[in-house]
Design brief:
The complex is a heterodimer.
Chain A: E1 5-7, E2 10-13, E3 19-24, E4 31-37, E5 43-50, E6 53-57, E7 65-68, E8 75-79, E9 88-95, E10 106-107, E11 111-115
Parallel strand pairs in A: 2-11
Antiparallel strand pairs in A: 1-3, 3-8, 4-5, 4-9, 5-6, 7-8, 9-10, 9-11
Chain B: E1 4-7, E2 10-14, E3 19-25, E4 33-38, E5 45-50, E6 56-59, E7 62-67, E8 72-77, E9 86-94, E10 99-104, E11 108-113
Classes of the chains: A mainly beta, B mainly beta.
Chain lengths: 116, 114
């Protein structure tokens, strides 16, 4: 069964450093998302991406964040200068497209980001 | 108005019992309501979802009940099993308005005891 994959599973970085989190969405999916989950809290939407551009973003997704689809398979989230409060589990998700009813989002296993 | 309120925060059910988790929302534009199951250290896994044009949807032991007028929806897990022990999140979005971002509830930690 196709699945969303994410690398690395755990990333430790120092405050102020740049990190890139990588995701490979399900191959025929057209919509891509990043969410984050601070330990013990709910999952929060960061950004959605369609047709090589951001379609929606939340207040959390400030200028420190960027997303990119560098090739036909990868989808990345970059945090330019990490802060302690960026420590969280980051989930990538994808969904099939815009056809009515194709709203199901499938999540990857997540990358645990620890900022020290 | 974008919030989805979920209760209870935690739930302990005996094996074979019925687990019930409730969610309420304010935004009447929400028109897609999925439930996700999350095991420790894993990503949320889509369990079942409902649109507001139906009042109930059943898949195996999992049933969503939807009350549009009350702006509430709930997940029922029949014949609960220890393997169902996980955190469950309700969510909502407005794909009809072109927005696919999911707004999640705070989650319910379910423990099914033998």
């Amino acid at each position: 069964e196709p699945e969303v994959t994410q690398t690395p599973s755990h990333q430790v970085t120092q405050m102020g450093q740049e990190v890139i989190l990588r995701c490979v969405p399900i191959s025929n999916h057209l919509y891509f998302y990043w969410y984050r989950q601070i330990l013990g809290q709910k999952v929060e939407f960061l950004v959605s991406f369609y047709n090589n551009e951001i379609s929606e973003k939340s207040e959390i997704f400030d200028d420190q964040f960027s997303v990119e689809r560098p090739d036909g398979s990868n989808f990345t989230l970059k945090i330019r200068s990490t802060k302690l409060e960026d420590s969280a589990m980051y989930f990538c998700a994808s969904s099939e497209g815009l056809i009515a009813g194709d709203y199901e989002q499938y999540f990857g296993p997540g990358t645990r980001l620890t900022v020290t | 108005q974008q919030q989805v309120k979920q209760s209870p925060q935690s739930l302990i059910v005996q094996k074979g019992g019925i687990s019930i988790i409730n969610c309420a929302y304010e935004n009447t534009a929400f028109d897609y309501f999925p439930w996700y199951q999350q095991f420790p250290g894993k990503g949320p896994a889509l369990l079942i979802a409902i649109r507001p044009d139906v009042s109930e949807k059943k898949e195996g032991r999992f049933t969503i009940s939807f009350n549009k007028s009350a702006k509430q929806f709930s997940l029922h897990i029949m014949d609960s099993q220890p393997g169902d022990s996980a955190t469950y999140f309700c969510a909502a979005s407005t794909p009809g308005a072109g927005s696919y971002q999911l707004t999640f509830g705070k989650g319910t930690k379910l423990s099914v005891i033998p």
